[in-house]
Amino acid sequence: MKLKELSRINNFYHDDKVIDACSIFGMMDTSGNRFSGKPVVEAIANMHVRGNGLGGGFAIYGLYPEYANYYAFHIMYLSREGQAKVEDFLRHKFHVIDAKEVPTKPTPGIVNPPLVWRYFLEVKVEESNGQSEGDYVVDRVMEINTKMEEAFVFSSGKNMAVFKGVGYPEEIAEYFCLEQYEGYLWTAHGRFPTNTPGWWGGAHPFNILDWTVIHNGEISSYGINRRYLEQFGYNCTMQTDTEVVAYVVDLLIRRHGLPVEIVAKILAPPFWSYIERCSPKEQKLFRTLRQVYGSLLLNGPFTVIIAHQGEMIGLTDRIRLRPLTVGVKESVLYLSSEESAIRLVSPDLDRAWIPMGGEPIVGSLGKPLKPEKASVAEIKSVRKC
Amino acid sequence: MKTYLPPKFIVERDDSRCIRCEVCVNQCTFDVHSYDTEDAELKSHEENCVGCHRCVVFCPTEALTIRGNPLDYRENYNWRPEVIEDIIKQSETGGVLLTGMGNDKSYRIYWDHLVLNASQVTNPSIDPLREPMELSTYLGQKPDRVEFGSHGLTTELPPQVKLEVPVMFSAMSYGAVSLNVQESLARAATEMGTLWNTGEGGLHPKLYKYGDNTIVQVASGRFGVHPEYLNVAKVVEIKIGQGAKPGIGGHLPGEKVSAEVSSTRMIPKGTDALSPAPQHDIYSIEDLAQLVYALKEATNYTKPVAVKIAAVHNSAAIASGMVRAGADIIVLDGLRGSTGAAPKIIRDNVGIPIELALASVDDRLRQEGIRNQASVVIAGGIRNSGDVAKAIALGADAIYIGTAALVALGCTLCQQCHTGKCAWGICTTDPWLTKRVNPDIGARRLSNLLRGWSLELKDILGGMGINALESLRGNRLHLRGVGLTDTELEILGVRMAGS
Ligand code: SF4
Ligand code: SF4
Q1: What percent of chain B has pLDDT over 70?
Q2: B79: containing domain
Q3: Which CATH class is domain A12-217+301-384?
Q4: How much is the pTM?
Q5: Is the domain of B91 the same as that of B155?
Q6: Contact partners, residue A165, CB within 8 Å, separation at least 6
Q7: Which residues of A fall within a CB distance of 8 Å from B393?
């Protein structure tokens, strides 16, 4: 391993898993209204002690409406040469509609930041050899991440982007001037890695196309999840278990075309004893899923927030070894490691609850949440008397 | 000819304890003990003793001790006592030396060089006494993906067989072992939700009722194979080879072919049952495909078809071919796999360790993207739940145990299976001896064994912070190697402990 490459190694010790504990937060306005990241930053900052300053990041959806039809690439560079090489590559493989440096401001606590650039790209059909656009983009991203030194793609989806780096999330937000952006769906992550010096690319969210994953936990089934994915051409290059989650989601949803609810039953399947008590039709469904996708069961403690265009999904492992609280306020869905973080930014929630282990919580533009305020107000008035 | 073989064991009888009950005389099937009525004294023909310890266990006053005869020849690492005695035996008989059980040589046992992981701090271990812990697994071919139509799931899986515990009983044929042994195995398998295997000797009608927990074997001799036999079972297994004697056929001596054995095997009473070395309709991989599909046709595609081979040098390539030939389950039987009778020179020298074969087969099938198309089952020398957990982490779906099951029934590995005189009444068809295994007790001992292993497996899984078997399967990150070379680690796909 050449010394200079050390700066792009997420897991310094090559033990394949990054062991970490984290704070996670997600906020989505299911009516599609875009809002600033202020409450998101406040909420994640409230869970400061769940991180240790070695990683923070945000994913924002509905971010670039004016460029909604182009792939928005956020790419991190460790050197100008790296940038020149990648830009050459991009020009060769894509029509580059726009290219600019992502605005930043000096922030105490952020040391040695890499360059981060933003590109709006269109696939060059003549280069794609009949590959689907999605596969083409995934392959190009893998190419940059694995073959080109000094560069790493933070995100590659349409109308969304990932901002992340080494630091506390609130510092990252300040550094990337997130107050100036708006989106209808934000996820945020503060990281507490136990064994790595921290690398900007290794912070969450992890992204492929417009899928992002933030994750709190350690996946004890990592060894087999990774080997299973390798059969489908995914190379887990970053040596983190979160990457596995991103690829699993890509495989199941994009390539196998499975609905989110089904994917949740693969990642955190019901117990056999529960399955036996289901209706014959459900029994068959759950049994088949476990038989076919047993190697994708994510075992061990985890909470994830998975997001893509128009949808945010919160999920814990099936015996809920890591926390997740859900809050609803009118059409806004909150997911958080701690309820206090939600209450801080939305004290007057319609509803807050802790979902069952393995039970997916899905917020979707397709099914906007109905305001429930009335009933809550009634309860309140009763309490007042 | 005067034999030059010295006794292997010394029989010591404490005369102050002996009550002249003659239990030892009756229990020993090798005519070691005899009672001299005139002197009211027990005598021992030590040269006959095989060290099975039947007499020791049954002597009511614990008057007996069996010790190895030190045989202090002049020390020689090359010409060890066993080597000398084998030459003596052959020079006196001029034949192939036969033996029973598995390879007992000092080849590296990789299980003993692999250690398991456990959770500490960063993730919690799971307490199986308080949380669900799942050992169930399904054997059979799986597709790479499922599909949904407008009315939900449209994918229909090929036949799957559920195991409540990933440990099955390996093939031991009627004739090699007694009907009581098979009944014990069948009843224990039924009770514990796993499978037992008929071996190649057919299925006695008395055992048809355990069909749902039975694997029936189709081997080169085709003994007892008929439509009812195939259809009563849960899985049909084609036996190509066996770890104890890769490339060698079978030979059940005519003395063991009793009336019952003869009708079950569908051969005349008292005739030798000879299994040819190859299946004479399988001289290549496409022939195997034909037999696989013939059996699937015969059973109307309702049962997985397994193919069992001995682990040999290029098992990985062979296994890949077997999957492509339609096998739903691949069975690998390793260097230490046992037998009722095999040429000693084959047993001790042919085949490869199961750990290495398993690792390379699992890798190969994954590289080719066909691992989902077949389950992988291994056999050959699995001793305890630790071995089971390690095998699953290396990539096995389930494990066969043969010797361990027989030990549960009394076997002490005296390696006399081929003689038909098994003092423990296991590997014999002599009606006087087979009574020694009572199926009520035998089934209980076997169920207890599996129950104990299940509890231990749950502890192991929970310790790793995993609550389902499928998260351990092929998860080699939960293994580390101790005292292995780089090449060994590479083949096993396992890191050195500490790394
Ligand atoms: S019963 Fe077994 S151990 Fe005892 S004398 Fe006979 S052969 Fe030897
Ligand atoms: S079984 Fe024990 S007590 Fe009975 S005759 Fe033999 S040595 Fe003596």
Answers
A1: 100
A2: 9-95
A3: alpha beta
A4: 0.89
A5: no
A6: A55, A56, A57, A110, A113, A114, A172, A175, A176, A200, A203
A7: 223
